[in-house]
Amino acid sequence: MFTSFSTALSALGAHTTAIDVVGNNLANLNTPGFKRSAVSFFDLVTQSLGAGLGETQVGFGVGRPLTLRQFSQGAIQTSAGPLDAAIQGDGFFVVKTAENRVLYTRGGNLQVDIGGNLTLATGERVQGWPSTNGRVDTNQPVSDVVVPVGTLKAPVATREVSLDLNLNAAASAGPPPDQYSTSIEVFDALGMSHVVRFTFTKGTNPNEWEYSAAFPDSSLSAPFTPVTGTLTFDGNGQMTSPTAADAPPVLNVTGLRSGAADMQITWRLLNGQTPRVTQYAQQSSVSALSQDGSPSANLIRVGLANGGQILAQYSNGQQIVAGQVAMVTIRNPESLIASGNNTFQLSARTALPAVGLPNTGGRGTVIGGAVESSTVDIAREFTNLIVYQRGYQANARVVTTVDEVSQETINLKR
Questions:
Q1: How much is the pTM?
Q2: pLDDT in tens, 136-187
Q3: Alpha-carbon radius of gyration of the chain
């Protein structure tokens, strides 16, 4: 009978722990990326009474409950933060503390610190791959993701231009011959803008056009000599000359008044083996222009896109990849140990994390401009709270009952 005291006391302690777990779950009802914990009870070894082999067994109570973190998927909610990220599927973000401890989290409230590092709201640095000239090398080890805050993008001098256009097959050779002109904006090494003008003149041969490409003399210390040549077409309107074997026209620009370095602009008349210029009986017109230069530009916005890419947008309209967020997959995430700030650390039972890109190797995908909600269900937690409360009350009643019985037993001696 007197073992009932220890049995009931073990139950009181177990239900107290269970209520603490429910309280922690409810406290993190609105914590992004939080995973609820479940309580697992187990009994203690039993004792056999009497001469029989296990015919009468009395247990010694309940052990301290195990808490199991349940890594189920939380609801994805859109947010106003441009750097917020939510994981849909398995996996974790990798972060480092100020002491360089590696931790793991599913919390996606990201921000930028004073040094431009991408961090959690609590200061841990997000790990990934930096970008070099808009390219991310994921074969390198992960490191801090640095966001280019407040940077000025250097200008890029134009090296190639292209024009996709049609020249009217019904144009007249004159005199005077029909002409068609168009222009394209290019940039020198200092980011100064210049306008290159292209003029096409109908030749005496019905399938020939003379071209002229000129750089503005106002931008040069000496007059520019236009680059000229002939475009030849077949009876189907396809350009037959120049061919891919011929050297493309090149504008060699020297003596820029802006003081910029000399320019060498190549005019790409073919896209691989496909001519960019046609001759059909339609109005002469340009369908597309392209050049690879750009002026200097200010950074105006940084955001996290789907897939975990950090995109930087500049005032000239260009958008480059500034970094890539890494993810890890862990085969047994329930063995992780909570370390505060919505992060986890490895335990002795945790499998080695596998680092890689989102949406590869069993990892989930990253959704930008969103956060993962807590997996706590308030209705279920309140139900558990009532059940644990009733369990505590019942075992408290066992203690008072055993106390009364013991008092009655003591009184038998009187």
A1: 0.71
A2: 888 899 999 988 876 788 899 999 999 999 999 999 988 899 999 999 999 9
A3: 37
What would the pLDDT profile of 325-382 be if each residue is shown by its tens digit? 999 999 999 999 999 889 999 999 999 999 999 999 999 999 999 999 999 999 999 9
Q: Are 108 and 84 in contact (CB under 8 A)?
A: yes
Task: Compute CA distances 304 → 25, 56, 401, whole Å.
Answer: 29, 65, 62
What is the C-alpha separation between 229 and 285, in angstroms, rounded? 19
CA distance 17 to 12: 9
Fold classification of 160-295 (topology level): Tick-borne Encephalitis virus Glycoprotein; domain 1 (2.60.98)
pLDDT in tens, 58-101: 777 888 888 889 999 999 999 888 999 999 999 999 999 999 99
Q: Where are the domains of the chain?
A: 3-71+375-411, 76-153+299-372, 160-295
Q: Bridge-partner residues for 68, per DSSP?
A: 38
What's the rounded Cα separation, in Å, for the pair 73 and 70?
9
403 phi-psi bin (left φ>0, alpha ψ -120 to 50, beta other): alpha
